[in-house]
Amino acid sequence: MTAAVTNNTYSDLGLNLKQTDKKAESLGQADFLKLMTTQLQNQDPLKPLESNEFLGQIAQFSTVSGIQGLQDSFKSLSTSLTSSQSLQAAGLVGHGVLYPSKTGYLDGENGLSGGVDMTSGGQLAVEIVDGSGQVVRRLDYGTQGAGTSYFTWDGKDSAGNTLPSGSYGIRGQVTRNGKTEAATTLAAGLVQSVALGSNGLSLNLAGVGAVAFSDIRQII
Question: Is the pTM for the entire model greater than 0.70?
Answer without folding.
Answer: no
